[in-house]
Specification:
With about 375 residues, this protein is an alpha/beta fold. It has 9 helices and 9 strands. It has a 3-stranded mixed beta sheet, with no helix packed on it. It is globular. The two termini are about 20 Å apart.
Length: about 375
């Protein structure tokens, strides 16, 4: 595992980019946006500077334009990027946002969205080579992250070819009026879709199955679209009152993005109910489509996640797929949920250990302007999977 220290730089590995494009990267090196990568080996998950605004400019124009010509991008993506080179910063921020959200949503599950710096060409290891529920979630949250980040960058004025959404002002409600700067989720969605489809490699030898086959391509497109819709369907209407003496004689409203956690939680619940599908080829000129794998399964709609293969075993370590297993994971002895020792430890049992912990306590505010705390020592029980 790797922990990225708190820094204002925005990191994007080649594999992170592939999660957004659907391409399969063969380059075994870190890919970053003209900035230096700092990686330490302590910790168990990504740690980034959440105070850095999403889409914040951290790369100069010349550097951004140079990155548009990266060999990791297809010709279509290079063309898209050249229209507005700073957009790569938003793509990078979206990848970071997606990985952080994935690790939060699955922090207590057997697969905890772990990353592996030992496999820089695919930070999720071979898990993404299986068209499973987990791969479906990664595709969805990645597409959502790009749409979200690009939309936010537009409203901040960091991109030159978009700004506020003026389409909502065509509607004229009776008791309030549109105003302010509505964030343009439609542009963010369109860019996320164009970027993803621009990164698709042409199918070779009419391959049908596998991650690089037609079925996997259709799955990626469906799940990516579900991720974008998860953001758009949760856009919030925000209003502000205007009038004499605090009255609300005029109420001006605009639309803004929800907290990304809202979309992440919705996609995590869709992961649980994802639909098992298969490739259905139809005759004539009618394109192939994904259909329920069995007649008794309902047909998924555009907001559902779909998958093609059962998930691998996340209980035991699998070097081929880069699965760390659950041995050594801390579990909750009293929980009946996914973080409970019975489920997380996969029936292997657990060990209880006692640790001495030193923490800040009895904190108080001292005028002005400090918070002073004492250090308290106590023992804590931890339960660790065998």
């Amino acid at each position: 595992m790797a922990r990225f220290p708190r820094t204002s730089t925005i990191l994007l590995t080649c594999a992170s980019l592939i999660l957004l494009t659907g391409r399969h990267c063969v380059h075994a090196n870190w890919w970053y946006l003209g900035i230096e990568t700092r990686v330490s080996t302590s910790g168990s998950e990504i740690s980034t500077d959440l105070q850095t605004p999403i889409g914040a400019a951290v790369v100069g124009p010349a550097s951004a334009e140079r990155n548009c010509k990266s060999s990791h991008l297809t010709l279509k993506q290079q063309t898209i990027c050249s229209r507005s080179p700073p957009v790569l910063q938003a793509v990078s921020a979206g990848a970071r946002l997606a990985i952080e959200e994935c690790q939060h949503q699955f922090r207590s599950a057997r697969w905890n969205c772990s990353i592996s710096p030992e496999s820089p060409d695919n930070i999720f290891g071979g898990v993404m080579l299986v068209n499973s529920r987990e791969a479906a979630f990664v595709y969805a949250i990645s597409a959502a992250g790009v749409a979200y980040s690009v939309t936010r960058a537009c409203s901040r004025g960091e991109l030159t070819d978009c700004s506020c959404d003026n389409r909502v002002r065509a509607r004229h409600p009776s008791h309030w009026q549109w105003g302010g700067c509505s964030e343009d989720i439609h542009f963010g969605e369109k860019f996320s879709r164009e970027w993803s489809e621009g990164g698709e490699e042409p199918l070779k030898d009419a391959t049908l199955n596998g991650p690089a086959g037609l079925a996997g391509q259709l799955m990626r497109r469906h799940d990516s679209e579900a991720g974008r819709r998860a953001v758009r369907s949760r856009m919030q209407r925000v209003c502000k009152c205007h009038g004499m003496s605090g009255s609300c004689s005029v109420r001006v409203c605009w639309r803004r993005l929800p907290a990304f956690r809202t979309a992440g939680t919705a996609l995590a619940s869709l992961h649980e109910g994802a639909a098992l599908v298969r490739l259905a080829q139809r005759g004539g000129r009618r394109p192939a489509r994904l259909r329920p794998a069995r007649p008794d399964l309902k047909r998924p709609n555009k907001t559902d996640l779909v998958y093609l293969e059962d998930s691998p075993d996340y209980c035991e370590r699998n070097f081929t797929l880069g699965i760390p297993g659950t041995r050594g994971r801390v579990c909750n002895r009293t929980s009946l949920g996914l973080d409970g020792c019975r489920l997380l430890c996969c029936g292997r049992g657990y060990q209880t250990r006692v640790r001495d912990v030193t923490e800040k306590c009895k904190c108080k505010f001292v005028w002005c302007c400090q918070v002073q705390c004492e250090l308290c020592r106590h023992t804590r029980e931890e339960h660790v999977c065998n």
